[in-house]
Structure formats: C-alpha cells, structure tokens
Amino acid sequence: MSIVEMRVPTIGESITEVTLSQWLKGNGDFINIDEPICEFESDKATLEFPAEASGKLIYVANEEDDLEIGALVAKIDTSVTADKSAKPADPAPVAEAKVEEAAPATNGKESYASGTPSPAASKLMAENAISTAEVIATGKDGRITKGDVLKAVENKASSPAPSTAKEASSPPKTVQANTSFSRETSSKKMSRMRRTIAKRLVSAKNNTAMLTTFNEVDLTAIMALRKKYQEQFVEKYGVKLGFMSLFTKACAKTLMEMPDVNARIDGDRVIYHDYADISIAISTDTGLVVPPILNAESLKFHEIELKIKELAGKARSGKLTLEEMSGGTFAITNGGIFGSMMSTPILNEPQSAILGMHTIQQRPMAINGEVKIRPMMYLALSYDHRVIDGSTSVTFLVKVKKLLEDPTTLLLDL
After folding, report:
1. pLDDT digits (tens, 9 = 90+) for 20-79
2. pLDDT tens, 146-173?
3. Do the domains at 3-82 and 209-411 have one common CATH topology?
4. Is residue 358 annotated as a catalytic residue, yes or no?
5. Count of C-beta atoms within a 10 Å radius of residue 9
6. Burial of 10: CB neighbours in 10 Å, binned 0-12, 13-18, 19+
7. Strand (E) positions, 199-303?
8. In the chain, where the domains are located
C-alpha cells in the first residue's frame, strides 16, 4: 500500500490557520490528481484543495475543523485504481423473490417457522406498529417476509380505522396550544471569515480614536449626467455608469490633495501614499469583503466600473484571491443599497478613513430662496483622529461634496 499524505499548504505570509469548510469528495471515493477534494476557509477567502495524487481518499480531518498550516487533512491510497474502486452491482434478489412468491409448503401442517418474521420484516413491523395478526404470510413454511409487511402497511394506511361506541361517546379533544410560539434554540459555529471580521471590527473600535463627521450631497447634477449619457456609455463600454465610479473618482482626487486622509499608522510612524487604492465593501453570503481598486486616481470611469463588477462577481462566487483582497488606503461602503439612511461606518484597519454612502431620498431643500425637491444623500466619514484632525475630515467631506454636486469639475480634473 502506498499512501500520500495531504497537508494544509502554505497559503500566505499572514495566514497560520484555516478551517475545513466542506468536503467536495466522499470518504473512500476514488479521486484523480489535481481534482479538488475539499475547501478551506481562510481569514480572507475560500480556497479549493486539489489532490496531489490519484487513488482512494481517506478522511483524517473533519468539516469545521480549524487546521494549522502543515496539519494532516487526508490520505490518498495510490494502490487503489479506478477499476478496483468501482463497487460491484448488487445481485438481483432472485432467490428472495422466489421465496416470497412461493406458497407456504406446509402440507396442511403448521411448521415451526409459521408466523415468524424475517429480521428485515421484524424491523419493519416494529417501525410501523404492525402485529403478526395483520400480516398474511407467504414465505416458506409460513414465514413472514418483508414484502408481506409492506403489503400490510399499505392495507393499514388505505383502510380507515373503525370507530367504536366508546370513541363516539368520548368528550371532544381539547385544542392544542399554538405551536408557532417556539422556544427552541440552535447553535452554529461561526465561519472563519465571520470570526476574522469580528476580531477586526473589535480591534478597530479598541485600537483607534475613531470619530465620524457627516454632510449631505445633492445628486441632481449626477443623476442628470447619468440619464443623458447612460445609453452612450453602455454602448461604448458595455457597463453602466453607476454612482460608485463617480464617488470613487471624487474620493481618489481629494485623497491626492489631502494625503493625511490617505495615510496609516505604523508603530510611531505615519505612512503616506502617493496613490489611492480604494477598497469597495461588497456584501456576500459569508460576510463583508473589501477588495481594493488599485490606483483609482489614474483610472477612467468605465475602468472603475468594470473593476467593481469583476471584484463583486468574484467575491460572491468565492473566487477572490488573497492578492485581490490585500491592501487599500481608503474605503467606501454603500449602505444605501439596503435602505440605510444614516450610519457610522467602522474603519477597515490599517486604513485611517472610510466613506459611508446612504440611500437617496427626495427631500425639500432651500435653493436660492425657493423650496425645491432634490435627491439628497447623507455622507459619513469615519476617521482615526490620531492621524486626521477634525478640520481635515470636514474639509475632505466638503471637497467630495462639491465635486459630486458639480461633476463637470470632476470630469475636467479642476
């Protein structure tokens, strides 16, 4: 017998442990080399684990086990080939059929086996509360077969239970209590991604001097711009002009003018960036992920839209790589797609600021002494006060607001 041990591979520098989220092949199955046998869930992404050889799969670890890098996951018996692993077809129950079809050969005398159920029939009788008196035995020497019990079960189900005088005279049954008021509880182990998110959020709350400043933006001009050029934009680039590319571009431009908001703390030093890698929060079934759009300050609007579409598709299908999940100097989250009117987004460490977008509402606004209905959105900027002063955060939000309310300046890079 030749055994190949399958161990958790090195995934990334910062990853020391993974969770076996699910087996993709059954214990004892024959697998081919490079065929995925299970999925690992790391702090950032879900990864498939391919077989290193062909042979019979032997489980060692269990689903939901937390495994360190190098831990034994499974074994592959390479001495087993595809032909050997194939299970022989079950023989047709010819003999049993003959026994069941044959009439009891008792010659008018009762055999010692008469009325005795076979082991399978006995189990079936117990499960369905069938007595021997309710079964017509057709087996050899009057033995009760499984088929006899199945027929008795059918007859019992099809015939209504006879009502008796005692049942007729019995008092009406009391109405049972409403069973919809359940008090049951259940528990489920948190996924590794959810546990990582929880740790990072608590860390951000405990280890940063986080504050939030608010403003509101009038999206009249942006909505008019999108309405006027949407068809041409889609025809040329194959993707819609959305709000995210406009907000991303406005933030990237402002970050280049205000490097403090684009910085991060590293020990007792502040690291500044001459680029804007903007992380976009994407909601998935397993949790929130924030892959960055690299060099957003240098990308065109359609390039940002295409990149967002690509990252969102990969995130929701669990195909984001660790490289695509790493980095980011600033983040944007859009709670408005879920109907959020106002919130205080939490920092994505080690970043020092995050912009929160919210739902668009038609509200009456005073415009040049007149009341007009305008599409308004609240903006929230959460920031680390250790790096960013209050005046800096307010100025940043005001600059973003102005660019969005007059998108021509954004397009002309003014």
Report:
1. 888 888 888 898 888 888 888 776 667 788 988 888 888 988 887 888 888 888 988 888
2. 777 777 777 776 665 554 444 445 555 5
3. no
4. no
5. 14
6. exposed
7. 210-218, 264-266, 269-271, 278-280, 282-284, 287-289, 292-293
8. 3-82, 209-411
**Whole-angstrom Cα distance, residue 12 to residue 45?**
11
CA 235 to chain centre: 33
Q: Which of 49, 97, 43 has its CA nearest to residue 74? A: 49
**Of 23, 20, 27, residue with least CA distance to 41:** 20
Reading phi first (left if > 0) and then psi (alpha if -120 to 50, else beta), residue 310 is in: alpha
Does 302 participate in catalysis according to the annotation? Answer: no
Strand partners, 316: none
- E-assigned strands of 335-369? 353-357, 361-367
Question: Are the C-beta atoms of 49 and 198 separated by less than 8 Å?
Answer: no
Q: Would you say 90 and 115 are in contact if contact means Cβ atoms under 8 Å apart?
A: no
The SS3 assignment for 180 reads coil
Of 203, 248, 204, the closest CA to residue 347 belongs to 204
DSSP 8-state code for residue 117? B
Considering the four listed CATH numbers 2.40.50.100, 3.20.20.140, 3.40.50.360, 3.50.30.50, the one that applies to the domain covering 3-82 is: 2.40.50.100
Q: Which CATH architecture has domain 209-411?
A: 2-Layer Sandwich (3.30)
Token code pair at residue 68 = 């360190």
Whether 387 contacts 270, CB under 8 Å: yes
Residue 314 CB-half CA count within 13 A: 21
Q: Which of 141, 260, 302, 385 is catalytic?
A: 385
Measure Cα distances from 171 to 163, 165, 168, 174, 177 in Å. 14, 12, 8, 9, 18
Place of tokens 């910085």: 263
Rounded Cα gap, residues 194 and 199, in angstroms? 9
